[in-house]
Amino acid sequence: MGFIQAYKMAIKSIRGNKGRSFLTMLGVIIGVASVISAVAFAQGSTKNITDSIQKLGTNLIQINITGRNSNRNMSYEDLKEFAEKNIDIIGAVAPQSSTSAKVKYGTKNMDTTVIGTTPEYERIKNVHVTQGRFILDFDVDYRQNVALVGTAIVREIFQGKDPLGEKIKIKGQIFKVVGVLEERASSATRSDDDQIIIPVTASRMITGTSAIRNFSVEAASAEKVKTAMESLEAFLLKIYKNENTYRVFDQSQMLDTLGEVTGSMMIVLGGIAAISLIVGGIGIMNIMLVSVTERTKEIGIRKAIGAKRKNILTQFMIEAAVVTGIGGILGLLLGFSIIKFIIGGLNIVPAVYSIPWALISFGISLLVGIIFGLFPAYKAARLNPIEALRSE
Amino acid sequence: MIQIYEMYKTYQINDIKIEALKNINLRIKQNEFAAIVGPSGSGKSTLMNMMGCLDIPTSGNYILDDVEVSSLRDDELAEIRNQKIGFIFQSFNLIQKLTALENVELPLIYQGINTKERLRRAKLVLENVGLGDRLDHKPNELSGGQQQRVAVARALINNPPIIFADEPTGNLDTKSGIEIMNLLKELHRKGNTIILITHDNDIAQQADRIVRINDGEIVEDRQVV
Q1: ipTM of the complex in this document
Q2: d(CA B139, CA A298)
Q3: Domain range summary for chain A, segments of one domain joined by +
Q4: Would you call A1 an interface residue with chain B, using a CB distance cutoff of 8 Å?
Q5: How many CB atoms lie within 10 A of CB A372?
Q6: Residue A390 sits at the chain B interface (C-beta within 8 Å)
Q7: Which pTM was predicted?
């Protein structure tokens, strides 16, 4: 008996039992669909974050001052002086004082994040201005109360009105709007659109302190990142005398950490999905066992007229494989619809279609069918023809 | 054709040993029409299972067509059943999901014969048993007599030398029963060896030879005159 014949028999038997066949497939359908949509979600979020990190450039070094009760402090001027002395390794420095504050315009107000910085910020952090201008050295040096606003603020409190030249109030201080920041396409950093950027000198009035906790430093080149980090660490140690009060890190470390996080996310999601596939497989075994019991008589007849063990085994194995194969394909369709309509529709992460993962999960589902179909098929093949014929 | 020497079959159920067949010695020649007769529980079905290669004896020898069968493995028995034996059962034993044509072609599938040839032969045998217009009917769409004729067609498709008929008329009305018996007689005339298993003496009388079995032993073996 050939493979094609066994395949035809399997199709005949599946079609003869449509409802049950579908229920048998359901476990596999859900399993495969959850594997590929889980993977798509994980890959989508990874891509999202990786993209926004890489957009910042590979020369970027971040300094965070974490020590709280430190009576020593590094000011922006200290770091700037250090950068000017090490021009061969450090390209630019931008301080970032960040505080949340309410901004008012007329009767409207909204909660925003106010960032105090210098003109270098525009280049280092890859910020774009769509209207007006960025902060100038003049604004920093003469502590001008000027501000750039994000698109969310334009929408919320200016309600589409041209904000340039308008006066807004931040914590009681009046600022003149001189520019509008470009809308961030990336949805993970959506909150950036409600930012306000002001000169670092002006932000001292808002935060109430001249201590700045975050600095973005641009190394002179990608190759100088390591050297720059080492010299920055040495410089910071001299000021703070304690390695635990500050952190210096670059993009590769951020990407590494991200890789670890998304890696474990993939493992967890993959694990859950794999369990659902195994549960689907047990479902197949269950139904196949019932089917073998129900069809004992048929097996007896087939054996009496000359079917060998191998023939019966093949018949049931192929039946299991065909059921899971069809289930796998339906699962892929369901999974891709989930990616397209749910993940794509919610637009939280970009929809990623992973063909290798689709093939892997389809392959696993077939394997599950064959493994879990083996025991019932073996049981059927071993039936004694006389006893099988006697059963009703 | 069939030679049985000192065949015993013992079943062990828990601690009780049941001797279903005791010291059976039997020879059936080619183109004989033999009836094996006995009340239920006499061992006639066990004997048919042995002769039909559905089971192997506990001891003794069974030579079918010059092949010693009693020591063969499962799959080898299946091959002999497929090529040398046709079965007709009391309860027809057709596969309900398959049409008459599909049921009849089944033995050929296990011989690896291609679809076209299978269908041609299956159609031919069904026409020969008078069911040329019922090819695509499923068993539950056929009468008992028609179902049994499908079973006869299935038994014949391989041109097996031996046909075993186990109470072939047991589930049929008188008229259909006569039709089936006539089919068997016709096969006998064409050269097949027919072994009929029955508890019904009237049916048995239609054979050429009667082998009576009781309590697992042959108690009578005579030619019908």
Answers
A1: 0.93
A2: 13
A3: 3-52+257-390, 71-241
A4: yes
A5: 24
A6: no
A7: 0.68
